[in-house]
Each structure stands twice: as C-alpha cells, then as structure tokens.
Design a protein that fits this description.
450 residues, 2 domains, Spore Coat Polysaccharide Biosynthesis Protein SpsA, Chain A, single chain, 9 helices, alpha/beta, UDP N-Acetylglucosamine Acyltransferase, domain 1, twelve-stranded mixed beta sheet
Length: 450
C-alpha cells in the first residue's frame, strides 16, 4: 500500500515570541522540520508533503527538494491545514500519515508501527496516544466501557472529569486516503472558528467504524515544541538519547550531562570525550581519540588516536595521531597531517602542515603549505594579507623557523633552511641556508645531512 506523509508546518508559533518560523528553530543544530523530514524519509520512498503558511518562503528554502508543498492560506485549524494537501494527494496514495513539524522526537520505528497498524486492521484511521500525567495541552482520548475509542476532546473544551483522564491524543494519525478527504469536508467549525483534525475521530465512530489506537512506549516522543522552554526540554531528551547511543557503541563520555553531540556526528570506539565538549555538524571522529575538556569540533574529520585539548576546530582535517592544544584554533581549510603537534594558542587557516610538523605556541599559519618535519618556533606568523590579496607561503621539508619569525608572503623557504629568532623574511630563502635579521639576509650555508 502506498503511503505518503503529510507534515503540518503552517502554524504561527506565537508562543516562541520570535520572528523566525517555529519549525525553523534549531534543536541540536538542526531545524525542527528536518527531524520530521528525516522520520518521513525512513517510512516511504514517496516525497512527503509539507503544509506551509506562516513563513512559507523561509520553510521552502530550508526544505528544498526534500518535499512537496501545500499552502494553507489562512490558518483555520489542523483539519483545514490537512485539507490543503488534498489536491496534491487525491487518488494518488492509499494511506496518509499525518505528523507535525514541531514534534521532533518521534522515532521512525514508532511511526512505522502506526502505519502497520492501519495496514493490518479495519477502520479508516489509526492514531497515536500516550499515557502521561503531563498533558502538555493535548486533547483527551475518550473510550467506551469496552475500551473502544469514541472521540477526542480538546483540552479547552474538556470537563473536569475528562481533564482527569491520562490518555492523550498526540496528534499523529494514519488515515485511509479514500475515507479521509470526504471526512475532512464534514468537520464542524469550532467555537474558535477553526476546524480541528481531532473531530474526524468522532466522525468515524458516528459512521459505525473502528478507530485503532497505538499507545506510545515512551511518552517523551510526543513532546511538542511551543515555547523555548519546550525547546530546551527537547534538547535535553535528544542529547541523552544520542549520548547513550554512543556510550553503548564503545565511546567513553566522562560526564554525559556536559557533553553535546549533534545527530550528524560519527565517533569511533574507544574515543574518550571529556566534559564541556561540543561535536557539531558532520564531524567524523576516528577510534582511540581523546577530546576535551572544553573543546568545540565542527564539520571536521579526525583520524585515529588524535588528542585535542581545549581547542576550536572548524571545517578542518586531522590525520592520525595529531596532538593539539590547549587553546588551539583550526579555521576552515586547515589540514594537519599524521603526527603533527600544535601547541597552545596556535591558529591555522587554509593551510597544510605535513607529517611530523611541530608548531610552537603563539603562532599563526595562514594560506601556507608546510613540508614534513618542519619546526615552527613560538610566535611565528605568516603575513599572508597585503591589504588587498591573500598570498601564499611555501615551506620545504626539514625547515627550522626560529621564534618570532615573520614570513611576508608570497615567499618560499627551501628545504632544510633555517631562520634566526626575530627574522622578517621578505624574499625566498634557498635550500639549506640560514637567514637572520630585519629584513632577513643569508648568513651562511648549512651542512646537508644524508
């Protein structure tokens, strides 16, 4: 049976008190709507339909080609929102799975169980419910003496007796498409002038049909985001899930409560992560690394056995057994080859440091290519910007740069050359030559080893 997911994302999100559409607020580094899209992608090969309204253009830009779009011109309730997708889906699918973009904690496995329930049972719809003493604004599920679902009553319209019920409607459904579209046209208008999707449950029962219900094993999955308080609570739940997954996969988190790992990160086993470490974006960590404390790694790839202490890494590459920090900074385009050591308060941008390079503290390397086994003395700087252009520095193998060397790019340092402390290098240096002074001048040729 063909299944298409419809993701409701048209609400104003007034309680977020923000100019940003609610579904574009970020949870663990990703907009809320991306979680709904990811879950839908795991259930069907068919493109989902996103119903947009408030901030429609911004939502379209975020989603791109991952979905089709239906427009809810006026926000007149959830039934009205779903009806906006009728033109796209009428006679083109067997089942319609309805979720909302502000409920990011649902697992794909949970929604698959709901779809399977509808496939394998009679009745026009199946719904998710949760048992919880924290209603979070959800409607209550009403059942008859035989335990059959009879209706859903919205919290604002419930009697005190109904408010005491603990079974909640979490606003996720799987419908028979053939029944759904005519039923939506029969939904009555509420006292608030809106059309509620919850009313289709009562319509089905009035037609003498069975409403199937699947109760959540984990009520946290049904958490909706309506305020920034909810956003923070969801972040805590998601972070706990992610951290538990990595610990079970063989990663040591010294303090999971202060370790922040985003969903797109990959970590090798036997890696140890110390407190206040943030792994973000599409970061890939090899096996046997030691990270932190107080480290931020974003969109960066680390090889095996790397050690990073109290540093910031952005869009960089570290090969095996790189050791850096504390207080190092790798900016986009930094590439540290195997065995590089980078001391404290060093910064690298758009540069390659070859195997075995030792970079002392208080140094800056930008727009440079550094050969193997180079020693970069403390305070060394590539002066790569002339006010108009970024210029390149080339350093050969086995070069020794004395402390406080300034390399005024463009400049090339030949293999085996040396600079004296405090040198300002403004011209190319031949191989195996010692230069000193301001500006640096050749002092003598060096003995070649080997």
């Amino acid at each position: 049976m063909k299944t298409v997911a419809v993701i409701l994302a048209a609400g104003h999100g007034v309680r977020m008190n923000s100019s940003t559409p609610k579904v574009l607020h970020k949870l663990a580094g990703k907009p809320l709507i991306q979680y709904a899209l990811q879950t839908a992608a795991g259930l069907s090969d068919n493109l989902p339909v996103v119903v947009v309204g408030q901030g429609a253009e911004a939502v379209r830009q975020e989603v791109g080609e991952a979905a089709r779009f239906a427009i809810q011109e006026q926000q007149l309730g959830t039934a009205h929102a779903l009806l906006s997708a009728e033109t796209l889906l009428h006679d083109s699918t067997d089942l319609v799975l309805v979720t909302t973009a502000d409920m990011p904690l649902f697992r794909t496995e949970t929604l698959r169980r709901l779809v399977d329930l509808q496939k394998n049972n009679s009745g026009p719809l199946s719904m998710l419910t949760a048992l919880s003493s924290d209603a979070r604004g959800f409607g209550r599920v009403l059942r008859n003496a035989n335990g059959e679902v009879q209706a859903v009553v919205e919290e604002a319209q419930a009697t005190p007796e109904q408010l005491a019920l603990r079974e909640l409607n979490v606003s996720v459904y799987c419908f028979s498409a053939a029944w759904l579209w005519p039923a939506l046209h029969r939904v009555p208008i509420s006292p608030k002038g809106e059309y509620y999707l919850t009313d289709v449950v009562g319509l089905a029962v009035a037609d003498g049909l069975v409403v199937n219900a699947l109760q959540l094993d984990d009520p946290d999955e049904a958490m909706g985001i309506n305020t920034r308080v909810h956003l923070a609570q969801a972040e805590e739940i998601l972070r706990r899930r992610i951290n538990e997954t990595w610990m079970l996969a063989g990663v040591t988190l010294v303090d999971p409560h202060t370790t922040y790992i985003e969903p797109g990160v990959t970590i090798g086993r036997d890696t140890v992560i110390w407190p206040n470490t943030y792994l973000q974006g599409k970061t890939i960590i090899g096996e046997g690394c030691t990270l932190g404390p107080n480290t931020i790694i974003r969109d960066t790839r680390l090889g095996q056995g790397c050690k990073v202490l109290a540093s910031l890494l952005e869009s960089a590459v570290l090969e095996d057994h790189v050791d850096m920090g504390p207080f190092g900074h790798l900016r986009p385009g930094a590439h540290l080859a195997e065995g590089v050591h980078m001391g404290n308060f060093g910064e690298v941008k758009s540069s390659y440091l070859g195997p075995g390079v030792k970079m002392g503290h208080f140094s800056y390397i930008g727009d440079a290519n550094i050969g193997p086994n180079v020693n970069i003395g403390a305070g060394t700087i590539t002066c790569n910007f002339d006010g108009e252009h970024k210029n390149h520095t080339e350093i050969g193998a086995d070069v020794f740069l004395g402390s406080d060397t300034m390399l005024v790019a463009p400049v090339k340092i030949g293999e085996g050359a040396r600079t004296g402390a405090g040198s300002v290098v403004t011209h190319d240096v031949p191989p195996h030559t010692l230069v000193v002074g301001v500006p640096a001048r050749p002092l003598r040729k060096l003995d070649q080893i080997g």
